[in-house]
Amino acid sequence: NAGVTQTPKFRVLKTGQSMTLLCAQDMNHEYMYWYRQDPGMGLRLIHYSVGEGTTAKGEVPDGYNVSRLKKQNFLLGLESAAPSQTSVYFCASSQDSHRQPQHFGDGTRLSIL
Amino acid sequence: SQQGEEDPQALSIQEGENATMNCSYKTSINNLQWYRQNSGRGLVHLILIRSNEREKHSGRLRVTLDTSKKSSSLLITASRAADTASYFCATAASGGSYIPTFGRGTSLIVHP
Fold first, then answer.
1. Are the CB atoms for B33 and B45 separated by under 8 Å?
2. Lowest-confidence range among A37-41, B35-39, B45-49?
3. Which of A36, A76, B3, B29 has a beta carbon 3.0–4.6 Å from A87's, enabling a disulfide?
4. Cβ neighbours of A96 in B, within 8 Å
């Protein structure tokens, strides 16, 4: 039982490049989230999804897009990477409510040069 | 924003001592959750306490909630070196979307 799996674990990009981060969960959870974690800033919500085919903006959505084509997968895309997007990205899921505990992946460490 | 704020930012103690960290928030909440994050890993859920609860226990963890003061505390008793981690509170505001917002965390170091 893997829980929440994020790929890749590390990535270095050049400014202007694009990439997609993949999050997969095997718990049949409805809700999924993407966060970024920066030193001294805690976790900030980028986008979230309350079910297959749905997405919504969080606190810091600019520069990111997401898709939830399958219930178990939540993709985060950077169309044109910027140095300000250097961060650690975490995916999380919860069963069927924002009020329930979230299960986190181990993060993707992304550096934009 | 509803973001909770943990205090202190950093805490250093010896093994066997108790560790207490606090979380303060600004508006009414539906629930408050505590998470632990080990270095290089994702967050792990510890305890959820609802707004109508005042205290919850889980093993060596004790969480209290004082809604009149808009604050919560997490007590780790008889701490171990393995408790070294960052601890975050997450608050779900009532009357809204209930999307939890996370504080900046308390970094706990337990010396063997």
1. yes
2. A37-41
3. A36
4. none
Tokens of A63: 């520069």
Distance CA B104, CA B6 (A): 7
Looking at residue A1, its pLDDT comes to: 64
Average pLDDT over residues A10-21: 97
In A, which residues are within 8 Å of B44 by CB distance? 104
Is B99–A90 a contact, with Cβ atoms under 8 angstroms apart? no
A20: its two tokens? 């997609």
Q: Which two tokens stand for residue B3?
A: 């973001």
Structure tokens at A47: 């986008």
Q: What is the torsion angle, in degrees rounded to the nearest 10, for the CA atoms of residue B61, residue B42, residue A63 and residue A66?
A: -100
Measure the CA–CA gap between B39 and B86, rounded to whole angstroms.
8
Distance from CA of A10 to the nearest CA of B (A): 12
